[in-house]
Amino acid sequence: MSEFRLIKREDIEGLRYTKLPWDVCIKNRPYQVINVDGFVHTIGGHLDFGKGNSFWAYPLDEEMNYDNLIEFNGCPGARWGIEYYPTNYIKTKWDESEVRQGRHLIITRNEKPFYDGFLTIHEALSLVLDNKLSEHPLDLNNRDFDKNCVGRKIWYRSEPAIIERYVNGQACIIIKPDGMERFSVPKEHQDSDIPYYEEDTLKVDIFSKNVWWFRE
User: Fold this and answer.
1) What is the block-wise mean pLDDT of the chain (216 residues), using blocks of 10 residues?
2) Which domain covers residue 27, as residue numbers?
3) How many angstroms separate the Cα of 38 from the Cα of each of 1, 75, 161?
4) By the 8 A CB rule, do 113 and 169 touch?
5) CA gyration radius for the chain?
6) Are residues 15 and 71 in the same domain?
7) Residue 71 shares a structural domain with residue 87
8) Residue range 168-184, pLDDT digits in tens
9) In a domain, 140, yes or no
10) Are 156 and 197 contained in the same domain?
11) Is residue 42 part of a domain?
């Protein structure tokens, strides 16, 4: 059974802990979360994984010390949200203007724009409220996930590719073909009257069903 054991000032010097990659922010200030095995401050709750909650945190831009170390019972990763409202806009074509209906839909990550694309409101709500963003292969809850994904091997439309860079604010990746000069024209467009060209780089939504993330 777990027992409470709080960190005392004399424990700091010999403290053994594991740093977590969670991108935790408190009032827009990044914090480093650590797991100090054996030092339990909370029993039960969402961060008790059977041994009590031994997660602690301190400001990322400071060295850990007794005075800045606090008990952590918060969100284990980035904080996700949605901004949504319907809009009106004016479209002009062939000297004729009309008012059309639009929308503002953004998924936010730690209060900053993360995704601005073509998901429906229902899809966006499902990603955020059903915790599906935590299951994404790019480890979106972790700090520096956008840098760590560079160089990752993936399949795009069954063709081998490599992630060249991540596009912040759009949740997109720039990919290049791996082992060939260009991506081929998709089969569904090969007989189309609309021009579709082979590309040497592509910008791809990270929620695209055309991406398979696991390639050795």
Assistant:
1) 90 95 95 96 92 96 97 96 94 93 94 92 94 96 97 95 96 95 76 62 94 95
2) 1-75
3) 12, 21, 44
4) yes
5) 23
6) yes
7) no
8) 999 999 999 999 988 88
9) no
10) yes
11) yes
Question: How many angstroms separate the CA atoms of 82 and 84, rounded?
Answer: 6
173 close to 166: Cβ distance less than 8 angstroms: yes
Distances (CA, A) of 211 to 13, 52, 133, 137, 163: 47, 38, 16, 11, 11
Residue type at position 204: V
- Closest alpha carbon to 204 in 161, 175, 168: 175
Residue 99's closest CA among 112, 109, 90? 90
Q: Is residue 54, in this structure, part of any structural domain at all?
A: yes
**DSSP states along 22-56:** B-EEETTEEEEEEE-TT---BSSSTT--SS-B-EE
